[in-house]
Every structure is written in structure tokens, then in C-alpha cells.
Predict the structure.
Amino acid sequence: MRRKSLVVREPLSHNSGVEYENRPWTKIAGAVFFIAICVLYFVRLPTTVQFGDTAELVMAAVHRLVAHPPGYPLWVWLQELVIEVIPFSTEYWRAAFMNSVFAIAAYVLLWIHLRKGPVAFGIVAALAFSRVMWRYSLLPDVFSLNVLFMAIIFTLHFRAHRREWHAPALVFVFCLAFSHHLTIVFLTPMVWHVMWLERRRKAIWIALGAGSFASALLYLSLQLRNPEHLFSWGEVSSFEAVVNHFLRRDYGTFQLVGTNEEGSLLVNFGALGRTLAENFWGLGLVFAVIVIALRKKAKKTFDARDGFAALSLVLYAIVFLGLSNTPLDGYRIEVIERFFLFVEVGLCFLLGWFMVRLLEGEKPIMPWVASGVLIVAASVSFVRYQAYNDYSSNHLIDEYLRNFFAEAPTNKKIVLITATDTRYFGARYAQAVLGVRPDVIVTSPKALIFQWAAKKFVRESGLRFDWDRVSRLNHIDLTGDLVMPNLDAAHFLTLYPLTEQTKYKITLLPIGRWIEKGTGSGLMEATVPFPLTEEKVAAIDFPFDRYDVYRDLTMDYLNYQLSYAKIVAEHGQLERALQAITSFRRILPYSLPVCVRAA
């Protein structure tokens, strides 16, 4: 007679016990489930540049450059390897693919952590198709690898005593994660708890030393990544410079952004609460019902590991969101909401684990009902955000940048002055990776506030820029500090509404202004090679109740249409003015929220 296979596992409640291995259907269902997630993710991956820091990060991996603080050395080395190894599609797609793999690996760990049962499927689906998690699982940004590190640490924390290697592995991974994203520090309570319990084991201290050493080596390796290159951030060419980069001195240590702006903890909490409510209402509902129905059991089930995990999330919410010195308006909303992933992932691991233990020994129908509600909630999120998070045919930023460069003459020295990370990093990506107009010198006022950036700009361009004066006044006057001192040597292409018509000549372009020596203003009636059409804008389906960068970019085109109509109308060309206004009105509905804020 064949003996049944038993596997001794960590008890789900305080009562010790054993449970049988998962049945074959669980493995089959799990395989089908994750294959479906892979397909739904991979078909939506971007093939060309998108918004935010992604352009700079992929460019850093392709050309072995130093990324913005803290440098993310582990990420850029891994991405460089992946981009070199994968032989097909674009560099941007390869980097995005690897980040999707990081996210899916985290979902697998969450599924295993929740015992691969019905509740596990529902919670994984809720996380995978939540708006922000889905978005940053498709884009080549640093957040999905951070999520994977979080998943490993949460999983090992809750089962550290099951295998001898679990606790040392937890400590090593925690230390290694510092070579990627510094927000991992908020998981310290969980790690310290395990280290205290295992403090007499030599393996713990060996893991601490090995992980710290590996992380330090990765940061020192930034000196091997062409730190002197124009597109590398800073001058990371010494030990002290590496330490400053790690501490994010350019932004201000313990600050999210390098400005004198101030954020509001209450406003940040409000934004976090809205995001959680719209994406995880199913998880909150199921958790509340189960805890209320089993409240006596819940009191006995909550243990020290739950407490330290909850403490990590509370510390993050209070400390990090309290230090986030940026107001939540315009593109800054997207800056802050990426960091909500820490709370989203932590809640899925913590609340899911608590629910699984509470449901142990209860009626078998209860986990299935809970899973049904979670799947319904995840399906609502999928339907709501599946167009929002589809980047497969989204080429708007790519075409926008090509249009921008197409406006620059080829027979003169051109300096492109732009704003926002999307435009600035995107322009450099277009030059370095796509090979678009590498002769144009790209800069921004936000970059020139750093001495190292000003030095690289002067070295590359041969132009004049008095950084000492700018530093002393803590202010950049584009006209007085950059344009006027260099009008004899270069021409300028800019988005900024510079209007000193008595000091230089301004030619209005489809995107931006062309500034050269002379006086007065003009209008260039040139058709850009990749015109923004109604169909292209309409295909980008983003909710109108929040800011998004793609509608922001259409504002540049819209501004030209209105300015063009005004100028030609003043010259009596009413029919041409009417055509411009008609074009403006066709695109306006997709940009209306940005227009309202601008007004």
C-alpha cells in the first residue's frame, strides 16, 4: 500500500500541525494563472521611450553611465546584462521585459507565501492589476526590483525559523537590497526581529558582513560606469563622491526632491488612501469581514512577526511620506505615487498572511468566497486600467522628441533648453540610444543648479555660464545667465516662454521657440515629420480625473495652434486661423484637465 506524502510545515495558527502537499490541480491552476499574467503583461510592454526617469535609467544601462542618486548600481548592471543578452526588439523593450520578470517573480513569492490556496490567487490578482503596480511592472524603472526584494524579505521574515538558511538569507538579501533602493531601510524592524532571535548564530553575522560588503562593492563599481560622461549624473570618481551619491546629497539627504518646496503629510496620506481605496477595496472588504467574523480567533492569531511587519509599514507611511518635500500637483503626483508600492506590497503580504491563518480550520467555502470577491475586484481593476497601462503602441514621447529635434537647424550650434524629467532625460535618450541629433546640446535649468552639471555643460558646449553667480543668488535667469552671454556663439531651442523681443529674435515653432541674435518675432510654418493627430492622442486612454504626462505633452502642440491662429489672424489670414482653431479643438478634449490647471 502506497504511503501518503506528508510535509511538515510552519503551523498556520498557534496550534502545531501538519498539512498534506498541495494537490496537482493547485500546480496546474498556478501555472495557468501566472502564464496569463505574463501574457497580459508582455503584450503591453513599451518598445520606445516613455515618461519620467525611465529614459535616463535605460540610457545608463545601454551606455554604462551613472544614474541619478543613489545610482541603483545593482539595477543598472543587471539591465546592462539583460540588454546585451536578449537579441531581439529594442533596448527599451528588453529593459521593460526584465522589470516585468522582477514583478512576476514577486507575485510568485506572494502566492507561495499565502500557501497557494484560493485566497492567494485573489490577492496576487489584486496586486498585479492595481493601477500603480501594473504600471511600474511594465516600465523600465527601479521599482519592480525593489518590490522583488520586499517580497523576498517578507517571505523569509514570516518563515525564518523553518529552515536554517532562511534567517541568514533574509539578512543577506536585506543588505544587498541597499545597493538598489534605499526605501528598503523601512523593513529594518522585521530584519532586526529575526536577527535578535537568531543572534547567537554565526551565520547571521556572516550574512550581515557579506551582504554589506557586496552592497558596498556595487556602489564602488559606479566609478567604472563612465562617470565623466556628459550624460552621467555627477562626478562619481572618488570614494567620497560615491558616499555622497549614496546619501543623495544632490537632492538633499532625507529629501525626495532637490528643491526648497514643501509637502504635506496629510495630503500625502490622502493620496495614499485614495490609491488604496480605488485598487484594494476588495482586499480591505474581505479582510474586515473575516476579522469581524473571527475576532476572537484574530486576537490569538496576531503574533510578533505580524507586529514587526505592521511597524515597518507604519514607519514608512509616517517617516517617508512626511519627508516627501513635494506638493501634489501636476507631474509631482506621479513622482510620489510610485512610492505607494511599498505600502501596497506590504499590505498584501501582511493582510493576506493573516487571513490565511484565520481561515485555517474554518468552513472550506470561506476561502473560496473570499477569493471570489478578490477576483471580482481585480477584474474591475483590469477592465478599468488595461488601456491605461498599455504601452505597446504608445510612441507619443518618441515622436514628440523627434519633432522637437527636427525643429533645430543643422548648420548652427544649437542648445536645447527643456524642462521636466520626461523631456530632459527623453531628449538625451533620443540622442544617445536612438541616434537623433547628437549634435544638439541638451540642458535644463533644473540640471544647471548643480556645479558638476554646469562644468560638463561648459566643457561640452564651449559656451559661458557663471555658475558661481547662480549659486550665490540661488536663482537662474535663463535670459541673463545663459541666452544673452552666448547669442554670438549659439542659437537656442526652448519650451520656456521667453519673450524679450528687444534683446533677441524669437521664432515661434510647432514645439517651443527658436532664439537667435536680432530683434522681433517670427512664425515658422513648418510641418513636423511626425504630426500629432487626433487618432494618436485618442488612443491613449488615461482617466481624466488625474494628471498624466501624455496630456501634458499635447499642451505644447496646442499652445502652438493657438499662437499660430493669433498671429495669422492679425495679418488678416482668417481662413488659416480658423483651420488652426479647428485643429486645436479636435485635440482639446484629450488635454482638457491640463488646460484647466494651466488656467
About this structure: The first strand starts at residue 6 and ends at 7.
